[in-house]
Every structure is written in C-alpha cells, then in structure tokens.
C-alpha cells in the first residue's frame, strides 16, 4: 500500500507503527470539524433576529470591514431574508407611534380617526416575513442612517401618502421645516440632521400634455411615453435616495405618443385612434423613468411596487366600499381571486430588465432596488379610509376611498421596510 509520495511501498517498515494512519486521520477530522461546522451551518433564528434587529454597529461589537470575512454572513443573511413575503399576525400590544393629534402632516382624506373611524383593530397587526423578523421602525436610528442625506419621492397620491406616513413616524423625535414653494413639489428639511425630504408630483412619471383639474377631469391626458417629465428628472441629481411609484392613474382616459406621434389611446372615443391598454402605456412609462434615473441619478433608486384597491360591492363611483375589519389571509383564494396583478407583473419585469442593463453597462453609481410591498398591502383591505376620509354628513354624497391608507395605519409598515432596506445598503451596498 502506497502511503508516501515517493512511490515506495513502506507497508513492511517495522519502524512505523501500524496505528499511525488511523490516529493521524482521527486528529485531522477532529480538528477540521469545528471549522466545517462554523462555515457551513445555517444561521440560527437568533442570529437572523440579531442581524435584522440591530443597526450595522449594532451595539454587539465593532462593525466589520466590507472586505473582511466577518462581513459576509450578515450580508448573506440579508439577501436570503425576503421581507416582501409573509403574513400579518395579531399583535394586541401594538400601538401607533403617533395620532391625528400629534402629527400635523396627516392629510384630511386619510385622517380616519378624526372622521369617526370607531375600530382600532386595524392597528393591532404586525407584518411577519417568512423566515425572519422585520424590526419596528426606530426614528432615532433612521435619522442617524440618513444624516446628511436627501430623499425624494416621485409619483402619485400614494407617494404623498407614503411621505406623510414617514414624517409622522419621525414626529416622535422631531418635526421638519416646510420649505415648499409649490404644491407639486413639497420640500421638508430636518435641520438638526441635515436631512431633506422632497415629494415630486408625477402620477405618470413621463411628460404629460394635459394638466388635471376639476374643469377638465374627463378629458384624456396626453402621455409622451418616451419623453422625460423634467419636473423631476432634472432635479434628482441632488438626492441620495429616490422612491418611485405610479400605477393608479394609468387607468384614466389617455392618449399615447411615441416620438411625438399619436399611436393610440385608452378610453378615448375617437374612432380614428387605435384603442390600446393601460399595460401598453405603463410599461413604456416605466422604461422611460428607468432611463431617466440611469441618466441623471447617482444614488440608490427604489421602485415601490403597486398597492391594489380593495373596492367590494361595486366600483368606486357606484357604492363600492372596503368595510372589512381584519386582514385577509394569503391562503384565502376566494377573497384574493378578484385581484389582478398586471401592474405588479410589469413592474417586476421592467425592474429586472433595468437592473440587468445597469449591471452590464453602468459604472456602479446607480443602484436599483425593489421596494416590494404588494403582498403585504394586498392583504389589508381593512386599512383604507373607506367612508372615514371625510365628514360624516348624511346630506352630502361622498365616494368611499379604498385606494389610499389611513394614518396611522398599515402604511406605516413601509417605514419598517424602508429602514431595513437602508440598513442593508450600509451592510452590503452591491
């Protein structure tokens, strides 16, 4: 039997004890086992919780270098934990961190408690991702994460709803100064933290030819689907973080232009114009928005995904309502069958295309991230204003609101999402 590299058979050498090989192998195995276990075992639930519930410096020791071996496990855990899939679990001890009396940023139409919402049950739920925990928003830690930074929201009234939720979550610690000079661009500054928040109104994300108003609300909008909306695309170079959303406005009457030429329409009664779909315009608007981001932005850009409406018993203008008092369960196929995911599917597809193009062609200055809240909010028909977004006057007919979100309400969980995503950027900004 050959044991040595010389090729000489030493099996008959009486000076070598016959037990040396088994002993040698035993020592090697015993020595190697702790190393194998350390680098190949799955992280424990405690370790997942520890990572996801602490800041990068964590209070548990010095922050490892991105190039050190110690940094890899935390980054890997973050990538494996998908906070977008999960379920809502009851949390009887949960309480909102603000109220309609402590946060002045709440819009009247989302001020559900002011207008008589009698139930607090919709505030007693917590989002539980599959396989990990999502820490509750910490305003102190958040403000330290964004110290010296600038954040822009771009989109429709859901973007405004989101911004107002964030401001209210931060109101436990401090209030911003409002330095806005136009309703189409809200600007807030937290001077103690040198942190700025700006909201750009752009419900279609692209150049729009008709300004919406009460007098022409039924007229089609002219969408120039391959042209930038310069009200925001020329300003984003000054920001570190960008959150983009759009979707609900794409179901309104619109005319579509490409290269300056009319190519189709949606809900327009001109027989000489080709009838197209909302998916046609939405996909092209997203492509143009991503092109603008890659051209003019050098930070982290988040595409926040679509949140569906929850009208039941009719559409919004014919008595539709959202009167449920508890979240849906994700295995409730009957209740979920009514929802369509065309917008969400387009978002994921176009995000994937833009991300891959950026990976191939970018110099790394733009990072695209998916801010995926669709499943979480799909399950919350109980979180809308419904009939509590306006005064309770029996002599006036109001339409119920099953699109926007009560403040406080389930939308505040987006603060948990956003803070976790920002922490991951600090740990592993790839």
From TrEMBL:
Cellular component per GO, a single term: Golgi apparatus
Keywords assigned by UniProt, alphabetized: Membrane, Signal-anchor, Transmembrane, Transmembrane helix
Trichome birefringence-like C-terminal domain location: 134-420
Membrane-spanning parts: 20-39
GO MF: O-acetyltransferase activity
Domain of life according to the entry: Eukaryota
The keyword Transmembrane helix is annotated on this UniProt entry: yes
Main localization of the protein described in the UniProt heading: membrane
Domain Trichome birefringence-like N-terminal, chain residue ranges per copy: 80-133
Signal peptide, first to last residue: none
InterPro entries cross-referenced by the UniProt entry: TBL, TBL_C, TBL_N
Bilayer disposition of the protein: Single-pass membrane protein
Cellular compartments annotated: Membrane
Protein family: Belongs to the PC-esterase family. TBL subfamily.
PANTHER family for this protein: PROTEIN TRICHOME BIREFRINGENCE-LIKE 19, PROTEIN TRICHOME BIREFRINGENCE-LIKE 9-RELATED
Name under which the protein is recorded: Uncharacterized protein
Lineage: Eukaryota, Viridiplantae, Streptophyta, Embryophyta, Tracheophyta
């Amino acid at each position: 039997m050959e044991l040595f590299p010389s090729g000489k058979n030493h099996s008959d050498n009486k000076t070598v004890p016959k037990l040396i090989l088994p002993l040698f192998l035993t020592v090697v195995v015993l020595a190697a086992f702790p190393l194998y276990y350390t680098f190949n075992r799955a992280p424990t639930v405690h370790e997942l919780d520890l990572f996801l519930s602490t800041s990068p410096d964590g209070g548990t020791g010095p922050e490892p270098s991105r190039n050190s071996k110690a940094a890899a496990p935390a980054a890997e855990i973050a990538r494996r934990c998908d906070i977008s899939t999960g379920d809502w679990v009851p949390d009887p001890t949960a309480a909102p961190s603000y109220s309609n009396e402590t946060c002045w940023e709440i819009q009247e139409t989302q001020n559900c408690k002011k207008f008589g919402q009698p139930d607090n049950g919709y505030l007693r739920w917590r989002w539980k991702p599959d396989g990990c925990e999502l820490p509750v928003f910490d305003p102190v830690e958040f403000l330290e994460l964004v110290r010296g930074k600038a954040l822009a929201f771009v989109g429709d009234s859901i973007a405004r709803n989101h911004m107002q939720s964030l401001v209210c979550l931060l109101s436990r610690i401090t209030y911003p100064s409002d330095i806005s000079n136009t309703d189409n661009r809200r600007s807030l500054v937290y001077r103690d933290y040198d942190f700025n928040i700006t909201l750009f109104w752009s419900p279609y994300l692209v150049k729009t030819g008709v300004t919406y108003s009460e007098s022409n609300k039924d007229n089609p909008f002219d969408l120039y689907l391959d042209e930038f909306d310069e009200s925001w695309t020329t300003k984003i170079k000054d920001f570190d973080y960008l959150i983009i959303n759009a979707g609900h406005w794409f179901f309104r009457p619109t005319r579509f232009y490409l290269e300056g030429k009319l190519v189709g329409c949606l809900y327009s009664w001109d027989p000489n114009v080709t009838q197209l779909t909302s998916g046609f315009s939405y996909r092209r608007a997203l492509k143009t928005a991503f092109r603008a981001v890659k051209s003019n932005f050098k930070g982290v850009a988040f595409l926040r995904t679509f949140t569906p409406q929850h009208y039941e018993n009719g559409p919004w203008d014919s008595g539709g309502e959202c009167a449920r008092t508890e979240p849906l369960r994700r295995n409730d196929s009957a209740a979920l069958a009514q929802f369509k995911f065309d917008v969400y599917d387009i978002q994921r597809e176009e995000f994937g295309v833009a991300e891959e193009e950026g990976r191939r062609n970018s110099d790394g200055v733009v990072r695209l991230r998916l801010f995926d809240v669709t499943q979480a909010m799909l399950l919350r028909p109980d979180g809308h204003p419904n009939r509590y977004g306006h005064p309770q006057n029996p002599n006036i007919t109001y339409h119920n609101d099953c699109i926007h979100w009560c403040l406080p309400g389930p939308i505040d969980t987006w603060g948990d999402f956003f803070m976790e995503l920002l922490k991951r950027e600090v740990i592993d900004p790839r």
